[in-house]
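hey so u asked for the seq, here:
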Amino acid sequence: MGQKVKLQVYIVLFFSVVFWGFSFVWSKQALEYYRPISVIFFRLVLSVVFLFLFGYLFGQLQRIDRRDWKKLILVAFWEPFAYFIGENYGLVHVSSTTAAVIIATIPLFSPLAAYYFHGERISRTNFFGILLSIFGVFLVVLKPNFGFKADLWGLIFLLWAVFAAVMYSVYVLDLSRRYNVYTIITYQNTFGALMFLPVFLVMDFRSFLSMGFVWQAWLPILLLSIFATSLAFMFFTYGIKHLGITKANIVANLIPIFTAFFSFLVLGERFTWFNIIGILLVVVGVVLSQLGSHEPVVNEW
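ran it, structure tokens below
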């Protein structure tokens, strides 16, 4: 991989992390008015409309081979379906920053999955970087009394989201070598919306009708659909395509940093000196985790 392409990959991954970092704040805002399934369903529907419109205008959608439809459906089951259930129900029980730090544990498990399914190797330096950044992440969310407060059900849902994200990374890698990221994300979100439709009708439809249209909820849902559900997934899949599962997922460690920053600006959360130290450790850990790892050979966008 050339230096120019490598820089482009990391810039794209950076924006995916920024969008996902803000997504926890947007989700928290929307969940003040609508139930989790409603937020997820309309987030996906708006994303699908945006993606198909973009695809029609710029001709980005590729034809899917008949043999790959099952793989696409499986990818959609893990993310967005399984992942969003875990994330959104987790956010009902915990703060946006706490949710982000749980999600940031994905890099702890993705190397194991990458090794088992794809034979990706990880060096001692990479592994040390992972541990250092994870330790830094927990420092970011410590309270002034050094306590870590989280609801048990919130943790269970968020750990399920972590598992779903790891499985998504495993199964999307093969598809990313044959299709551009735009095609994958468009059909992934389409199948995800179809999966959520019966769940929405059974669980949330009456509640949604009783709440009615609330602009304070629809604005963050719209932002979620375009930036977090469409663009961020495209950028992240592009990162997996060029860097592999382990290195792309490790960059996700930066998500709670941005979430904490945006939560400070929008939701009024505050930080202590050890939170700042945690931020620095995360950055150093991410840098170490990227040194000297194997890079897969793949096609372009």
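The radius of gyration is 18 Å. The mean pLDDT is 83.
lmk if thats what u needed
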